[in-house]
Structure formats: C-alpha cells, structure tokens
C-alpha cells in the first residue's frame, strides 16, 4: 500500500513539521504545554512526577524527529544494517541520557529551575527500564549506545516484558522479590499497532508433492499469537542519529481469538486464551548465567525470533533484491544462544516459504548470522529437550535434524577415522530425553563466533568448542573484548569528573574517542589537579554515604576506604570469599588493643546484587552478609573501623551512584569462570582501583593500566582443574584462618548457624568447587596491602589518575568498530551533511 504523501504536497508538509526546541524559553513552552494538555495537569497540581513526565515528553518529541530522519536516511542509503538480537536490554533510565546526548541538559536544568524544580529530583522520578539480569543485558544496552553514537544503521530486537527484573527488598536479612511493573507511564516507547506479526506454535507438518512435482512442506493447524511492535528511540551522543530498539509484545491474534465464545457464554475461556497469549511476553526470566529449560522460555525465544525475522525479511523484500544479496543487506548478531532459533527460522522461511534450494538457503543463513558466547559455565549452556521442540515447533525440529545430518556428513568426510568426534559434535545429545545443543547449532549456523575477553575466547577454543576449531579452523573463532559506554558510565554518572577531565583536555572529545584520555597522564604531578580529583571522589562518597544512611539507617564515614562488590550474587563471583574476608578482618580488629586499633585504616565494605529467586545458595550468601553487618555495625569495639552494608535492589540507576564513589571494587571470580566482567571497567574509569583475580577482562585491564595499579591475587585459571582434583584426592585442608571464620559462624555469632551450614559445607565437605579456601590467604594478604597503600593518599590518587588515563581501550565504541570490521563488514553512515543542516537551523 502506498502511504507516502504525494510530491506536490510535501512542501506544505515540510513547512509545518516541528523543528524542536533549542532554547530555555522554547523548552519551557514545551514542558508546560505537555503538562497542561498531554497530562491534563496545572500549575496548582504539578508534583515532581508530573515535571518528570513533561520533561520526558518534551525530549521525546525531539528524539522522535531525529528518529524519523534517521530511519529515512538509512532507508535511502540502502546499505547493510545490523540487527542485534538480545533477550535482554538493561537500559536503565532514559531522560538524563537523552538530555546529555542531544546536548540540552543545561537548557533543561535552567528551564526546570524557572518552573520550580531541581533537575536531579526530576531525573530521579524515572523508573529504570530493567529488561535484563546483569552483564549480558547491560552490554546490549552499551552496544546500542555505541552503534547510535558511531552512526551505524542498527536495530535492536527484544521482548517487551511487562515485568522486568524483580525489585529486591531485604527483610530480616533475607531477600524478598517484588514484581517490577514498569509500564504505568513509559514515554520512551511507541506502540506500533499497525506493525504486527502472527507467530505460530504447535500443529503438525504436512509434506506432499504438488501438481508440478515439487516438494511442499507446510506447517499446519497451530495456535497463533500476535506480536505487536513497540519502538524505543536510541539516541547517539553528539550526532543526529537516533536508532531503533524494537520490542515485541504478545497478544491473542484477532483471527484466532474466538469472539463467538464471548457470545456463547464461554466468556471465561475466551479470556483465558487471551491471557495465555499475553503470558509469553509477561515476564523476564530472572536467572543470570543459568538456563532451566522451561517451555515458556522456549516460547518466548521463538516468538521473538519469528517476529524479528519476519520484520527483517519484510524490510529486505521492499528493496526488490535477489536472495543472494540478503547477507549484503543484513547482519544478525546473536547475543548468546537465546536467539539461535532465528537461524532455523530463516532457513525455514527461505526453503518452505520462498522455495530456495536447501544449500542455497543455508549459504545465505550462515553468511548472515554470527554468535557471541558469554559464559563457559555448564549450567548456563542451553540444551532444549527434543520432545519439547517436537511439540512446540515440529517443523523446526525437522530442520534442525537436517542441518545436523548435513553437518555430520561434512565432518565425517573430513575426519573419516574419528568415529567419536561425530557423537561429540552432534547438535543432538543422546541423553534421556534427547536434547538440542544450542551453542553447537549457533556455531554451525554462523560465520563467526566470538568470546568477550581474551582469556575467555581462548578458553572456549580449547575447552567447550575445541572440536569445532578443528572442524572449521581457527579463523572462525575470534575475540572481541567487551567495552562500556563512557557517555553513561563517565559523563552521566560522574559529571564532575567528566568536567575536570574536559578542562584538562580542552574539550569533551574524549567521550567520542576515549583513547584521548591518555593526554591526562602528564597531569599526574599537577598538585591542583590531584586535589580537585580527590575532592570529586570525596563528594561522590559523601553522596553514597547519604544514600546508605537513607536506605539502611547506618551512618558511614566518607573518609573511610569504600570497598564495593556490586553484581549478581553467584557462587562463582565469590561474594562468600569477600564476606569471609570481612569476618576475618573483624576477628583481627577484635584481637587488637585500643591503641593498636588506632593505626588501622577504616573501611566500609559495600555489597549489592540480586540472587535468582530459586538460587538457594546465593540467597544464603545475602543472608550471611546482612547478619554479619548487623553484628559488626553495632559492635562498639569496631566503630568506624569497619562497616558492612548491603544495598538493596542494585540496578543501573543505583550503579550510577555507587560506581563513582568506590575506592576499591572487587572482581574476584574463580579464575576461568567470569567471561569478561564489565563493571571492572566502569569502576576503573571512575577513578577507583580494583582487587581481582586473573580472570576475564581483569587481565587486559592490568595489561593496559599496569600491574602496579591493580591488586591481583589468587590461583591461575590453568591450575584450577588440578586444584579441584586435589580437593578430593589429595591431602586437602581448609585454610586455617578461614577455619577460624567458620568457627565463629558456627558459634552462632551471626544467628542460627544452621542457616549457613550449606555455605560452609560446600567448602569443607563438597570439594570447594570455587576454590574459596585455596585463594583465601592470597586474598586477605592483598587486602592488607590495599590498607597500606590507601594510607598514602598521594600515591593512591596517582594510581587512580594513571589508570583512568590508560582506559581508552575499554570503550564499547572500540568494541563495536571491531564487530563492524571483523564480523559484520559494515560501514557507518555519513551524517556530516545532516549535522551542517542542523547547525544552520
Ligand atoms: C558474563 N547471562 C560476564 C557479560 O559479556 C560478561 C545466561 C543464561 C541465561 C540468562 N542470562 C545469562 C549471562 O550469561 C551473562 O550475563 N554473562 C555475562 O556476560 C557480558 O561480562 O562475564 O558473566
């Protein structure tokens, strides 16, 4: 259907198209108009929430105009697009980011002040968009920011969960989960009720030969659920590009929805059908680094893949190109194996719907897709039960078997003598029931596979995907070390530090080219600069101390060393090692005379993070931290020397307060388990030092900033296997200092010792899989070194400044450019002309 305005009427159209505010007065006009009309409020009825809403709507209008132009420009340019498929996008708040990216935060600040509001209070009204669990979801959000900022034509595709990650409250030291209903007022999304896709489930496959002798495969009689598109604008920094994040919401299909049931007294069952459809996009699965194989999760995956693929193919078809050109127009990145069904779905569309030959189709598919692995933990690797797929997606199972057959035949031809190899690399695991190994399917369906830090990329090549390196050769497997966006994680979270850096470098250019930070290094001896640097850190700590007081009632001294570990709670991330270290420190303090205590460096240990609701051990760790805090924070012998804080409901907006306030942060996973980590980068970029194991990106951070600026400890990844073996078969003993910690816990000092039995037992009885005892001594010794180093503040600040100056590598801009060069083969779009037009008007 032709829906564009005829040429001779476009002039009028253009004349009246809004141009957007740039001045304070224009901003005030917009916000008051929105508050009085869109929101139907008045100056007698305008609270901070209304002020937020009005501000958000004013900025949204601006973004949408640029969003429209960006989409037109990208369509007109007619070049390759990136599609980033991720089940999680942990976006956080949008308003502050939008204001900074379009460069109008100061205008808004002054305008809001005129109207009686403080901009910080207005910004704080916004609910986080928390459609993710942790690292994987936040990485997707950083990537969207970078792709827009670098002017890549890129779309994100995800699910519009009605409930994001749960809100965490701590009651009596236990985690309680509260549903996160976040859509009451969301000005950042546009429902596209005209952009829908019908997605099929269940049914059966009909194969027959038509009159012309052609094999026809048709998937019939399924249940249909409709996907509705919701578009979220993604503004780039200092550029007119506003990209699109398209999130699918599920609803009962109107064709399928049985209106006769409404009339015939079966109203309830009609409503039940509707609810079943809506359930698909209802809730984000709250597991980080764990897959539990639930049917609804598989439904989510297919629903989202099918809708996204249909949309991508529809867009391609409008260009009237040959199918062979599909991979020149489309690059699809699989964020972990969650979207792997998209591989099968594209093959199905090409073969069953478009009538391509199997091999022709498969060449297109593998040129289109690429896959990022984010974890080597066995419990996180997806394996879907064959009977489950058979029932839900019968045609897809056939296609998977066919892909497997032709893959195994190639392998057999190449390695005729290696019978066992076939069983090892088969996409089907011969278990009870049989399962589909999704990572293997993703590898076979992609032209490139990448890990997210050097060690991790090496590990996947030598362990879980070893056989595939033999089969495909080493070039298919590459590393792209993760990065973070300096816009949100420096400029937005730490505006004063960003400003200080800009004052030394002469501009904010470093936010677009982070390697420019190296120009800071000569200033390490500048006394005035160092003083300002330290003042900013102190102010950030004061702000966090206020937050701690407000939310926990505990008063902490901002002069103390702030030691932070914030991330999902997981045994492999070893928050238990940290809290055992805290107890060890407590024992040490208690053993000293009051004279000796005066020489100690005061410390505040801050924890934050959610445990998956079904992860008992992680919940026990949270409980122990809270109980230890209760005892230590109220012990008069300890006073300010040690405080233990658990901050509830760690999320993106809290990270923006916590990260700039840290002196030391902890990245202490068992070597070889944390694929990369990205908060390590955020902390260092904000002038905090890190204590860490030789794991994930810690290794590359060390290489960049220098060994003298990192506190490393613990066993190496290459020794982990032997150590584990030794726990069972050697003469193994728990570290004696750690044993004292256990004895104190068992004495009931921190409440009913039975609560913590499993936590201790995992180490003393069940093989200490995560090497807590092996690393304990090295950990506490390194903590002592940190105390000593912190006493010399001048030296400490030197380390911090030097580190920041050397962090340029870890921007997600570098990371996205690497993906673009080595995987997607795509160029950014030229927006110079658009920028000039904007500058003139
Ligand atoms: C790594 N999530 C970090 C980060 O690359 C890394 C898995 C299965 C089901 C649900 N969620 C997951 C992850 O695997 C995940 O978040 N991985 C993380 O990806 C970005 O920095 O080391 O643990």
Tell me about this structure.
Helix 25 links the parallel strand 20 and strand 21. The strands form 6 sheets. The chain has a 9-stranded mixed sheet, sandwiched between helices. It has a 6-stranded parallel sheet with strand order 21-20-19-22-23-24, with helices on both faces. The chain has a 3-stranded antiparallel sheet with strand order 14-16-15. It is an alpha/beta fold. The two termini are 34 Å apart. Helices cover 48% and strands 15% of the residues. Helix 3 crosses helix 4, helix 4 crosses helix 20 and helix 14 crosses helix 15. Among the domains are: 192 residues, Rossmann fold; 269 residues, Glycogen Phosphorylase B (Rossmann fold, 3-Layer(aba) Sandwich). The site of N-[oxo(pyridin-2-ylamino)acetyl]-beta-D-glucopyranosylamine has 22 residues, from helix 7.
